[in-house]
């Protein structure tokens, strides 16, 4: 059972790594600049442990407390990984997430920055934080889905940069469902450049999922977040 799952994950990983390398080469980029974050949400900690054996170094989760529980189980199984929290985060859960997340990709408002900073300070940790950018609407419209409106990115980035226990890693987006991902990733790359102009160390661009990693890499993604193409289709959420 576990052997079968291991070979399935190994084959899927090889395909995804091949796609990343091909996309990087097509864009004239060094594939070594890219980090594969395997999003393991809904899949068991046993899969996380297998992925670690197969050379995966970074995993992503989108829900608390599932993420924390799996981190503990995977650590008990001996897996050493960097944990990325990529999902929407309620302010009152930020404290708990800072105990196990190495990076949070979904920072989209000032109150969340404050909550993450106090959690990280209490835990005695320093956490990578990405400003999540909402590219659904126009700049002058309030952001509907998760993410800061492009016009608000700067204030969130500045707040992260001045928080002692957070490190401003860069920006993140989820491409809108009903739009061309190329447009979204091109826009994200402009927002990323604006952030870097103020904060030269904030070089990370977290973009690209199973369906659009090629477009994201073409527009400068440094971290791709891949779930289904590695683990398989998730059962529909109830
Ligand atoms: C689930 C998820 C992913 C991975 O998506 P796939 O389509 O399964 O590759 C990436 N980013 C976020 C924020 C997610 O919630």
UniProtKB/TrEMBL annotation:
Residues in Alanine racemase N-terminal domain copies: 12-235
InterPro entries recorded: Ala_racemase_N (IPR001608), PLP-binding_barrel (IPR029066), PyrdxlP_homeostasis (IPR011078)
Keyword NAD in annotation: no
Cofactor: pyridoxal 5'-phosphate
Keywords from the UniProt entry: Pyridoxal phosphate
Residues the record lists as N6-(pyridoxal phosphate)lysine modifications: 41
GO molecular function: pyridoxal phosphate binding
Source organism, top-level taxon: Bacteria
Biological role: Pyridoxal 5'-phosphate (PLP)-binding protein, which is involved in PLP homeostasis.
Record-stated family: Belongs to the pyridoxal phosphate-binding protein YggS/PROSC family.
Protein name: Pyridoxal phosphate homeostasis protein
Taxonomic lineage of the native organism: Bacteria, Bacillati, Actinomycetota, Actinomycetes, Propionibacteriales
């Amino acid at each position: 059972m576990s052997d079968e799952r291991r070979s399935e994950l190994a084959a899927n990983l090889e395909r995804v790594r091949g796609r990343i390398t091909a996309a990087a080469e097509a864009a004239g980029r060094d594939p070594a600049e890219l980090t594969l974050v395997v999003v393991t949400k809904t899949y068991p900690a046993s899969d996380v442990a297998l992925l670690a054996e197969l050379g995966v170094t970074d995993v992503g989760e989108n829900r608390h407390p599932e993420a924390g529980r799996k981190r503990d189980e995977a650590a008990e199984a001996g897996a050493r990984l960097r944990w990325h929290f990529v999902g929407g985060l309620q302010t009152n859960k930020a404290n708990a997430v800072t105990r196990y997340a190495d990076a949070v990709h979904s920072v989209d408002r000032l109150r969340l920055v404050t909550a993450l900073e106090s959690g990280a300070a209490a835990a005695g940790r320093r956490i990578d934080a990405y400003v999540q950018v909402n590219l659904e609407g126009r700049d002058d419209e309030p952001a509907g889905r998760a993410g800061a409106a492009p016009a608000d990115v700067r204030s969130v980035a500045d707040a992260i940069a001045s928080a002692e226990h957070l490190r401003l890693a860069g920006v993140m987006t989820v491409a809108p469902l009903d739009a061309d991902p190329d447009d979204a990733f091109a826009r994200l790359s402009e927002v990323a450049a604006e952030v870097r102009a103020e904060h030269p160390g904030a070089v990370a661009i977290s973009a690209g999922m199973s369906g659009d990693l090629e477009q994201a890499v073409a527009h400068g993604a440094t971290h791709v977040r891949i779930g289904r193409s590695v683990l398989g289709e998730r059962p529909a959420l109830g």
